[in-house]
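Provenance and format

Records in this collection were gathered into a single text stream. Each protein contributes a sequence line and a token line. The two records reproduced below are adjacent in the stream.
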Amino acid sequence: PDRPALRVVTPGGAALAGRPTTLVLRWFERAVCFCAPLLLAAGSESALERGLRAFQNHEWAAAQRAFEQAAREHPRSARVQKLLGMAYSAQEKLEQAEQPLRQACALDPEEPDACYYLGRLYYTLNRFPESGRVFEDALRHTAQGRGKVFLGLALTREAMGETEAAEEDYRRAIEAGEQRALIDYGMFLFHHG
């Protein structure tokens, strides 16, 4: 059977690096790498593919609309729910981001970064006990990227005043190769050491 020609759309991650963004958006910049390279059949883009393309181009509202359609088409897809939550977060619609991120984490705790993003969302909303529980659960399901989960847990525990546990998590994040933990741990030591 004849198949349509395919073209590859790369994530454009370099274009994201160094751009001034909100704190929340920085957490989601790396997510584009999980969404690409994206293979698109010529002339037959799905809602998911349209959302990914819009997200890569920083067209947050268009990404949101496409991911909302994809969520209606695939309500049990953890990946789609995660991406919808990311689109809301990129627009600082943090309250709206909670439901799809929570659903993504519940549907598949091993979906790359779904639970991590939910934990970061709770942290951003100053809902530290919830953030801590989500990060702890994420550690049970995360094989790769554990350093950033440890860092999220360290920041959460520091915010809750649990300095000994926070220090241990900063060290674990550093041991796991999370470069951002070096700076955050240095600030922690400056304030608490």
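Adjacent record:
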Amino acid sequence: FMHSSEKGASLRNSLTSRPEKIDYNYKRNITEGGLAYYKNLNAKKSFFIELAVGTGFGSYKATEANSVIVPGGRLYDHNVFKLYFQPSVYYASSNIVVSVGGKFSSINFNNIKTNYTSQEREARSITTDNKLNISTFDFFMKADFYPAKLPRVGLNLQMLTTTDLQPNYYLNQNDFNVGIGLSFRLNTKGGKK
């Protein structure tokens, strides 16, 4: 089970040849859950392969601030539903868990609401449909560090890069993410899982 909530802002060059900047703010919330099968790969029970399947749902909301390019500002909001398959390998010890893997996702963006004009949508490659189905591949690396005196709570560091397997539209998603957070262990028997 995982819940992710992101807020952010970016200031980037205009999509036109004019020198103006675009002030773009976004908020993404998604909750994912799934089932996984894992198998030990060595006698020390420290290397594993894991196969997971799951689903996720949430919403993405974005605004582009009032500017010469978009007088009055713009919004681009939609709901998200996804199904995924996630193979990975990981190393686990009493103080660290490191995993590397990929996630193949089929994502449905629905209930798309925007006030971008047709011309602005075309310039930004934003779909004019009310829904859109895509497939993506995410490559990720993740590390959890657990101090000996606090074996159930750890520091989580992660990196994720996303590739749209059908790059047709700008979808209000990051291509590269770095994260830091907390990890919680439900079971510490044997100090590894």
